[in-house]
Amino acid sequence: MTAHPSSEVNTAVQTAIDACATLPGALLPVLHGIQDSLGYIPAAAVKQVAEALNLSRAEVHGVVTFYHHFRDRPCGRHLVEICRAEACQARGARQLETHARKRLGCNLHETSADGGVTLEPVYCLGLCATGPAVTIDGKLHSRVTPERFDRLLERNA
Fold first, then answer.
1. Could you give the C-alpha distances from 68 to 50, 60, 63, 81, in angstroms and in order?
2. What is this structure's pTM?
3. Cα–Cα distance measured from residue 136 to residue 26, given in angstroms and rounded to the nearest whole number
4. Sheet of 78-83: strands edge to edge?
5. How many angstroms separate the CA atoms of 63 and 57, rounded?
6. 3-state helix, strand, coil in the chain (%, to 5)
7. How buried is 72 (Cβ within 10 angstroms: 0-12 exposed, 13-18 middle, 19+ buried)?
8. Which pLDDT tens digit goes with each residue over 81-129?
9. 3-state secondary structure (DSSP) of residue 28
């Protein structure tokens, strides 16, 4: 969980801009490209994106902070997302979230002390009938109990 050198940030941002700047509504594709490359949207990227897309820094910052998907700091080695949509809540997601926070020693939007896992909420993974659902490093899992959560973490450690 380390920040990237400024030259790497500049290169990743420029690559995303070059790939997406001519698309209608280019801001979201650019931000996705940056996060896909770096794992987060560094504060330094906001100005570069704003200038390239002829937007204000406030507009870019507003989009980065509005969408839960975007992170403004590096992620842990693994990313765990717990669905918080109503269907998963009805099937035990709150208890799973409580267990995950205790197990990892961090809250939502935080990374465990060892830098191993970042815990994030997500609002619907499309597995409503088989919740609660989680992703671990982008891989979907359904019917996740606290015990299954522990096994999944051990397998992905």
1. 20, 14, 10, 11
2. 0.76
3. 28
4. 110-111, 117-122, 78-83, 134-136, 139-141
5. 10
6. 50, 15, 35
7. middle
8. 999 999 999 999 999 999 999 999 999 989 999 999 999 999 999 999 9
9. helix
- Cα–Cα distance, 4 to 85 (Å, whole number): 33
Distance CA 58, CA 56 (A): 5
**Assigned CATH class of 78-156:** alpha beta
Take residue 93 and report the two structure tokens written for it. 């997601």
Evaluate whether 83 touches 132 at the Cβ level (below 8 Å): yes
Q: Which H/E stretch holds residue 156? A: helix 146-156
For residue 118, the model assigns a pLDDT of 94
74 alpha-carbon distance from chain centroid: 10
Instruction: Give pLDDT, residue 39.
Output: 87
